[in-house]
Amino acid sequence: MSEKGGRPLRPSDYAVLNALRFLGPMSYQEIKRLTNLPRGKLYDTLLRLRDSGLIGFELRGRSKIYHLTEAGRVALEKGVVVSGFPQVERKLSTEELIKVLTPSDAAVIKALTEGPKSTQEIKEATGLKGLHVNLALQRLRSFGLVASERKGVMQYHSLTEEGKAIAESAVKAVEAKLEAERIVEGVLDRIVEAVRLGVSLGVIKRELKRYELELKERKNQETAKN
Amino acid sequence: MTVADLNKATGIPNHILYPTLLVLTSKGYVSREEGNLYSITPEGEAVLKGLEEGERILREEVIPQLKRTIELGFSTDYIMQMIHQKVWRAIGRRIGRRAG
Predict the structure, then answer these.
(1) Where are the domains of chain A?
(2) Is A52 exposed, middle or buried (0-12, 13-18, 19+ CB in 10 A)?
(3) Mind telling me how many Å the CA of A55 is from chain B's nearest CA?
(4) Which residues contact B92 (CB under 8 A, 6 or more apart)?
(5) Is A56 helix (H, G, I), strand (E, B) or coil?
(6) Residue A87 clears pLDDT 50, i.e. is over it
(7) Which residues in chain B have Cβ-Cβ distances shorter than 8 Å to A189?
């Protein structure tokens, strides 16, 4: 659940945000060198700031180049994260869900489709470690799919209306992603062998593109018939 | 074969054939003999065979499997991105093992 009234920035947040504000976009390694934060702490900080929408990143080759967002600038001036985790204002499409939801997210959503659960109950239902459950819940709250409520010492989590609406497609999407990964993993050795023999991966791309178009055409023809 | 013959056989224009032959000769895949006759070397034959085998692997063993990912609703670009990541990571691991 997003924190009403905003949460104050932590010292590590200040360190990262100020580095990006005064020195411009930079990589993880550069931020680490400048802020001197331990690896684990820096990772958590970047994740938190990214989830809060205070920083963004662009992929340059294999490395992420982080930059300060407008919300990050405002947060630095006010000293608080005004909106907490950003709420997604529109329904996520299946394609978007595939990109943002992890298998842990899907497992948590699946567990919550049975009804509200405490963190411990989610841990037992999913078999995930506490840290992974907490991170998944944090992410799902930021997408507006899960709401959390404290009752005594326990925190209970449930799917929001939006969460309920997309639960099935979200789980299916992540399962499809896992299936696709399994297929690719299954032929990975053969692809590596072909690459080693000097063949370009463009061969695969051309063939798959052709097949993709073929499937699209077939679907269009079927819809036209109906 | 002369450049003119190659041009006729492949349809590749001369301004592309010349630099290509230069690269292939420097790599030892093609040899240049008297009278500007080019011929393939045993190394070149081996590379060609490797390429043919690699293409066969992709067409017969890999692509039919990967078509299933497209049927699952993923785009070619998404699958290629996944393949690139996994392949280079696997190649990196192999190089790492060899170096180690």
Answers:
(1) 7-81, 94-164, 178-225
(2) buried
(3) 24
(4) none
(5) strand
(6) no
(7) 90
Report the topology of domain A7-81.
Answer: Arc Repressor Mutant, subunit A (1.10.10)
CA distance A157 to A155: 7
β-strand A154-159 against A26-27: which pairing, if any? unpaired
* A69, A56 Cβ separation under 8 angstroms: yes
Residues A9, A15: Cα–Cα separation, whole Å? 10
Instruction: Give the Cα separation of B30 and B40 in Å (integer).
Output: 4
Q: What is the pLDDT of residue B67?
A: 95
**pLDDT-derived band at B60, boundaries 50, 70, 90:** very high
Nearest to residue A5, comparing CAs of A55, A79, A73, A77?
A79
Of A176, A180, A192, which has the smallest distance from its Cβ to B87's Cβ?
A192
What residue type is assigned to position B41 of the chain? T
- The values of phi and psi at residue A217, to 5°, are -60, -45
pLDDT for residue B69 is more than 60: yes
Average pLDDT of span A71-81: 73
**Topology of the domain comprising A94-164:** Arc Repressor Mutant, subunit A (1.10.10)
Specify whether the CB–CB gap between A170 and A104 falls below 8 A: no
B17-59 confidence digits (pLDDT tens): 999 999 999 999 999 988 889 999 999 999 999 999 999 999 9
Is the ipTM above a cut-off of 0.85?
no
- Please enumerate in sequence order all residues whose Cβ is within 8 A of that of B75, keeping only pairs 6 or more positions apart, or say none: A212
Q: How many CB pairs under 8 A join A and B?
A: 106
Residues of chain A positioned with their CB less than 8 A from the CB of B72 = 176, 179-180
